[in-house]
């Protein structure tokens, strides 16, 4: 795949301890990426979404299916349910 | 289609009077203007020190723009403005401003509610309440 900018927000940012990072990934979709990131440290298990729903956006497009391809993506964001307004 | 759609994601506050004056210059055919302001409130069982609003700025702006376009398709509106703040806010500080303007009030009321409902759970903002005893991320229900 190549290098992708990963961004983390809110509770996910706090747990992982970073706002963003540039990572070399092999995964072809979000589901695989979440699995792949587990090898980088225990803190990434937050992305499995056991305590709350984890949303993701690929190049600022909301992901509705974790099987959606991320090939060619430059930025992938992970975040919990949104609470605007 | 409305004459104008204005969207901002910003740290700074907004001024209701100046927004009204700007709107008047652009909506001479509109007889109704609905302002919705969301502000920071104190907690029921603790004293809020501040509310921290985190945002994914660029994405938030494009998501808000999209819902404004949808509102413009659904209702006959002359003007739509959404300004949403982020950063550290105190009790009574403004959070969000939604202005909708139309010839008659029904369209403006309905569009305002439609936009606000969307903002609550579909635009990338996250609120954290920091109070005397606790701090926690807000969850929308």
Please explain how this structure is put together.
The complex is a heterodimer of chains A (85) and B (141). The mean pLDDT of chain A is 96. Chain A is 18% helix and 28% strand. The radius of gyration of chain A is 12 Å and the shape is globular. Chain A has a single domain (2-79), classed as Beta-grasp domain (Ubiquitin-like (UB roll)), CATH 3.10.20. Chain A has a five-stranded mixed beta sheet with strand order 2-1-5-3-4. Chain A has two helices and five strands, in the order E-H-E-H-E-E-E. With 85 residues, chain A is an alpha+beta fold. Chain B is α+β, with helices and mostly antiparallel strands and 141 residues long. Chain B has a single domain, classed as Molybdopterin biosynthesis MoaE subunit (Aldehyde Oxidoreductase, domain 3, Alpha-Beta Complex). Chain B has three helices and eight strands. In chain B, the strands form two sheets. Chain B has a four-stranded mixed beta sheet, with helices on one face. Chain B has a four-stranded antiparallel beta sheet with strand order 5-3-7-8, with no helix packed on it. In chain B, strand 7 (125-131) and strand 8 (135-137) form a beta hairpin. The model of chain B has no long low-confidence stretch (mean pLDDT 95). The A-B interface holds A 7, 9-11, 13, 52, 57, 60, 77, 79-85 and B 38, 54, 56, 58-60, 62, 84, 95-96, 116, 119-128, 137-140.
Overall shape of chain B: it is elongated
Count of alpha/pi helices of chain A: 2
CATH superfamily of chain A: Beta-grasp domain
What is the domain tally of chain B?
Answer: 1
Q: What characterizes the major β-sheet of chain B? A: 4 strands, mixed
Given the helix and strand composition of chain B, which structural class is it? alpha+beta
What is the mean predicted local confidence, pLDDT of chain A?
96
- CATH top level of chain A is Alpha Beta
Percent of residues in helices of chain B = 25-40%
Q: What share of residues of chain A is helical?
A: 10-25%
Q: What radius of gyration of chain B results from the CA coordinates?
A: 16 Å
Task: Please indicate the count of domains of chain A.
Answer: 1
């Amino acid at each position: 795949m190549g290098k992708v900018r990963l961004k983390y927000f809110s509770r996910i940012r706090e747990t992982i301890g970073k706002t963003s990072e540039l990572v070399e990934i092999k995964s072809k979709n979000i589901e695989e990426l979440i699995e792949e990131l587990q090898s980088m440290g225990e803190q990434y298990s937050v992305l499995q979404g056991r305590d709350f729903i984890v949303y993701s956006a690929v190049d600022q497009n909301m992901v509705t299916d974790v099987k959606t391809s991320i090939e060619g993506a430059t930025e992938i964001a992970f975040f919990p349910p949104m609470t605007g307004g | 289609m409305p004459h104008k759609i204005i969207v901002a994601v910003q740290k700074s506050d907004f001024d209701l009077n100046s927004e009204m004056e700007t709107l008047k210059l652009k909506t001479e055919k509109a007889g109704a203007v609905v302002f919705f302001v969301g502000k920071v409130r104190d907690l029921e069982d603790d004293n809020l020190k501040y509310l921290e609003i985190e945002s994914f700025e660029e994405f938030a702006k494009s998501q808000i723009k999209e819902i404004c376009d949808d509102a413009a398709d659904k209702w006959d509106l002359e003007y739509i403005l959404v300004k949403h703040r982020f950063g550290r806010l105190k009790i009574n500080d403004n959070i969000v401003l939604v202005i909708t303007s139309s010839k008659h009030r029904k369209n403006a009321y309905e569009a305002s509610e439609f936009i606000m409902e969307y903002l609550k759970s579909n635009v990338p903002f996250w609120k954290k309440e920091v109070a005397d005893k606790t701090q926690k991320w807000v969850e929308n229900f």
